[in-house]
Amino acid sequence: MKLNLTIIANYPVPLRLGIFIIFLLILWLPIAIPLYLLLQDDPNLTTIVTMAILYLEFIGLLFVWNKKVYKIKFWWRDYGLVFTRKNGIELLNGLSLGLFFTFGLFIIEAIFGWVKFVQPGANFTRIIFEGLLSALGLGLAEELVFRGWLLEELKKGYSRNIVVVTNGLIFAILHFIRPIGEVIRTFPQFPALFLLGVTLVWAKIGHSNRLGICIGLHGGLVWGYYIINVGKIVDYTGQVSTLVTGIDNNPLAGIMGLIGLGLLSLLMRRKKDQ
């Protein structure tokens, strides 16, 4: 018997999302559980392998989901992943903006005497290029999920304002899955994650639904933090509370990062309204 999956397109958004996630888990768990048992002595390797498989199956499911439910063949175009010169330029612009934002934040903190820049190590050039590749990979992967698939699913059932807020909340919540003690300790990071999610939605809307700006901006933020954190080019002076500079030296978990993201979100919203 041939199943007519197009009926799913008429279901409420939460039900549609739930069905997609159930399909994904059905594909993933029979592979992930044996791998977890096999590689349990190396938790890092287990996480890398199982998450890589999950993402590959997510991409594969997108082909089936969009073809069978929405009758869309080239789904990546609807998600804004178009291979055009304009999208490429917007990716580079976003990358530059994200990098400038991160370093600008630390430069301001250095002016106030809260941090100080130190001489980088001999492997600093390698760290820069490693960070770039990692940041672009993470930016592409996460933006395809949150500002690609999830955003388009939400748009099929909600108004724009609800879509923006819901996307930001889901983005923040899924990045905040941790023990309750850590949730409480690092809670200042949550509003910043929400604001970042909202900012990235506005960025996509303001660039005609193209995903390049989101990948670039997200990647630029990650790249800048990678260079500073892994490259160990900043020391904290301890003159102010970590609530200001960021809990665990994470700039998103501090007042300065929240203010900076607020300004960035206003910039993207202004672009959206033009």
UniProtKB/TrEMBL annotation:
Q: Which GO terms describe its molecular function?
A: endopeptidase activity
Q: Which GO terms describe its biological process?
A: CAAX-box protein maturation; proteolysis
UniProt keyword list? Hydrolase, Membrane, Protease, Transmembrane, Transmembrane helix
CAAX prenyl protease 2/Lysostaphin resistance protein A-like domain residues? 128-220
Q: Where is the signal peptide?
A: none
What residue ranges are annotated as transmembrane? 20-39, 45-65, 91-115, 127-146, 158-177, 183-203, 210-228, 251-268
The answer to whether keyword Transmembrane helix applies is yes
User: How is this protein named in the record?
Assistant: Metal-dependent membrane protease, abortive infection protein
The scientific name of the source species is Crocosphaera watsonii WH 0401
